[in-house]
Write a structure and sequence with these properties.
8-stranded parallel sheet
Length: 246
């Protein structure tokens, strides 16, 4: 387990303690869950502070803001995740500057990321976004659409299909939260069965699910990446940008 200095950002300690408690309750190793700090709307100085507290994975969804931070923090050794809505005219920049992309929902976007990933860079890690609640306001494919998309994306060069991502319906009841996350876990397990769109199984190892208000329920159902913003940074400053909360 990564030790956090006692004088570091206190919210990091609190969130890591909650992750440890949730993994222990689920009979899992705490190292099986990656804390992804969602820093959109927050400063490079704040990101550097939580990096010094041991958080190495950073999630951004406002592209121009993210590029400025990547430039300012290039000495910090961070892993950058793009978690926003993917637009075709922005794929080249994303493929060039990020290590992970969490919201692939169309083969066309995956093809562009593959074509535009620099040949000298390691493969770009990608997750397919699933609209697990069937909500019209949210992106993502349906569960029945997953096998065909997963097989097509897995065949593309310079991409590494890692798993699935979702933003489930907003629920206050932990049992309802777990219901959606359990559906995501089953979807990943189905893709990993040999013959379900891939003769050897998809070999997926990542479930990007769970945010500040529900990540314990996500961990109980197998989340390997939890995307935490408010619990680490507090409320974001007011902005004209709009994006799903993390």
């Amino acid at each position: 387990m990564l030790m956090v200095p006692q004088n570091s950002w206190p919210e990091v300690r609190l969130v890591r303690n909650r992750i440890e408690s949730a993994t222990r309750a689920a009979g899992r190793n705490v190292d099986s869950v990656t804390l992804l700090a969602v820093s959109k709307g927050h400063s490079s100085n704040s990101i550097r502070a939580i990096a010094e507290a041991g958080v190495r994975d950073i999630g951004e969804s406002y592209l121009q803001e993210a590029l400025e931070k990547i430039e300012q923090l290039q000495d910090a050794g961070l892993t950058w995740h793009f978690i926003g809505r993917l637009q075709a005219n922005k794929t080249r920049v994303i493929a060039t500057h990020f290590d992970w992309v969490h919201g692939v929902e169309r083969l066309k976007i995956a093809e562009r990321l593959s074509e535009q990933r620099p040949v000298h860079a390691p493969p770009l890690n990608v997750c397919l976004q699933v609209n697990i609640g069937g909500e019209g306001s949210k992106g993502g494919v349906t569960v029945p659409e997953l096998p065909a998309l997963a097989a097509a994306v897995a065949a593309l060069p310079r991409l590494n299909l890692r798993g699935l991502m979702c933003i489930p319906p907003d629920e206050d009841d932990p049992a309802r939260q777990r219901m959606w996350f359990a559906a995501m876990r089953r979807a990943l397990e189905e893709l990993n069965i040999p013959g379900r769109g891939n003769a050897a199984g998809a070999g997926l190892d990542t479930l990007s699910m769970g945010m500040s208000g529900d990540f314990e329920a996500a961990i109980a159902e197998g989340a390997t990446i939890v995307r935490i913003g408010t619990a680490l940074f507090g409320e974001r400053p007011r902005t004209t940008n709009t994006a799903a909360p993390q």
